[in-house]
Design a protein that fits this description.
single chain; mainly beta; seven-stranded mixed beta sheet; 0% helix
Amino acid sequence: QVQLVESGGGSVLAGGSLTLSCAVSGRTFSDYAVGWFRQAPGKERDFVASVSWSGNSTYYADSLEGRFTVSRDNAKNTVYLQMNSLKPEDTAVYYCAADLSWSSVADHYNYWGQGTQVTVSS
């Protein structure tokens, strides 16, 4: 079993920055690709970014326009999501997810964290 715990959410003004962390435990961390997803009230869960097992490859949703950066530290069993130039439309619950395969599709991930709220006000 793999456990994921997100942290770093909060409230920020538009244009500000936040860094989310996802601590992973339970199995060999480097065996798992990790993705970030977000879900706004009344909307579906959307893909944000993902990072490969080694961290050498990343993939982002086109809508982010280069404002977010995903990275991982395999020595610390942690994945990060650096979010810059935040907009009110970025407001959502952010989830990290892990799986042996690397994907941008939520249904492909078997392990999920509980989510962390990000609120961006104008």
